């Protein structure tokens, strides 16, 4: 949650972060009371801590995916808001690479003797590269760290002047909007617009628009086209649509024109539709 909202939010779920340390506390008790298996317990403790470097990137991807209503795990979620997710993307990539390095550093000497100094050098070199990479992002995209008080984190809320819309109400609106959109698959209607959608959600048009822009940092077109792109990807895998052209699939997913479809698909996946289809085969 802290990744999304840019501030620490302590809840009961936050206690889950203590589990690895509690496990290591238990391992330490066995370590202190054992003479024969000290090295084994030490190795297990190291691997427990190293595992955090791969667990947290997946949790971050899942949280951001849920925020944008995307299923599964994919780096393409960072295409939604490149400027405000630049540092988060860097964090996920670097933590994953560091996980591999630390796993090798911890376990490779068990298989190949004499590799400890080499892995130490690789680890130190990586940390230096990480420092340069973070510095580059801070310099080139300062707002990825230094956000204004109105925009905090990825899920920050920018309130319009003289608006009565609060973050809590905006979050409730998003939940309601998603439920209405998904329950009736409204995105399949190529004629759906902001006005008709707001009526079905029973949310004033200006409030719905402000919710999208202020909380999700999306226009209505981006919001609905996100659903349509995911629908295209879903039906493209189905046997009943195997003989459909790419454009026909796009129309089935709710798009109204080829240009809009191509632009939206590239924006949300980083690929052209033909590239995606070819890689999926």
Explain what this protein looks like in three dimensions.
The protein has about 280 residues and is mostly helical. The chain has 12 helices and no strands. The two termini are about 35 Å apart. Mean pLDDT is about 80; it is low at about 140-155.
Give the oligomeric state of the chains in this entry, treating copies of one chain as homo and distinct chains as hetero.
Answer: single chain
Major β-sheet annotation: none
Could you say which overall geometry the principal axes of the C-alpha atoms support? elongated
Using DSSP, what is the number of strands? 0
Low-confidence stretches: 142-154
Q: Give the strand content.
A: under 5%
Q: Termini separation (Å)? A: 36 Å
- Helix content bin: 55-70%
Give me a quick take on this structure.
With 281 residues, the chain is mainly alpha-helical.
Keywords:
mainly alpha; elongated; 281 residues
Protein topology:
Blueprint lengths: L1 H4 L13 H14 L5 H30 L14 H30 L4 H25 L26 H17 L10 H8 L3 H12 L3 H16 L10 H7 L5 H12 L3 H8 L1
Helix pairs in contact: 2-3, 3-4, 4-5, 6-8, 9-11
């Amino acid at each position: 949650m802290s990744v999304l909202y840019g501030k620490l939010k302590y809840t009961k779920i936050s206690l889950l972060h203590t589990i690895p340390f509690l496990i290591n506390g238990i391992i330490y008790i066995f370590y202190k009371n054992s003479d024969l298996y000290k090295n084994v317990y030490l190795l297990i403790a190291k691997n427990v801590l190293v595992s955090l470097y791969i667990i947290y990137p997946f949790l971050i991807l899942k949280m951001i995916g849920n925020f944008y209503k995307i299923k599964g795990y994919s780096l393409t979620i960072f295409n939604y808001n490149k400027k405000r997710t630049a540092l988060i993307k860097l964090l996920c990539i670097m933590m994953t690479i560091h996980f591999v390095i630390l796993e090798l550093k911890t376990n490779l000497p068990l298989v190949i003797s004499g590799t400890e100094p080499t892995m130490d050098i690789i680890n130190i070199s990586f940390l230096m590269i990480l420092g340069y990479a973070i510095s580059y992002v801070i310099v080139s995209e300062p707002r990825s760290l230094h956000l204004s008080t109105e925009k905090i984190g990825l899920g920050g809320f920018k309130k319009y002047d003289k608006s009565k819309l609060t973050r809590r109400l905006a979050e409730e609106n998003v939940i309601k909007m998603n439920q209405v959109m998904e329950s009736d698959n409204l995105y399949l209607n190529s004629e759906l617009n902001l006005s008709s959608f707001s009526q079905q959600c029973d949310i004033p048009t200006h409030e719905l628009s402000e919710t999208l822009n202020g909380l999700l940092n999306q226009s209505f077109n981006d919001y609905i086209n996100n659903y349509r792109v995911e629908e295209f990807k879903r039906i493209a895998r189905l046997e009943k649509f195997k003989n459909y052209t790419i454009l026909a699939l796009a129309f089935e997913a709710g798009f109204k024109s080829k240009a809009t479809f191509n632009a939206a698909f590239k924006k949300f996946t980083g690929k052209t539709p033909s590239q995606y289809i070819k890689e999926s085969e």
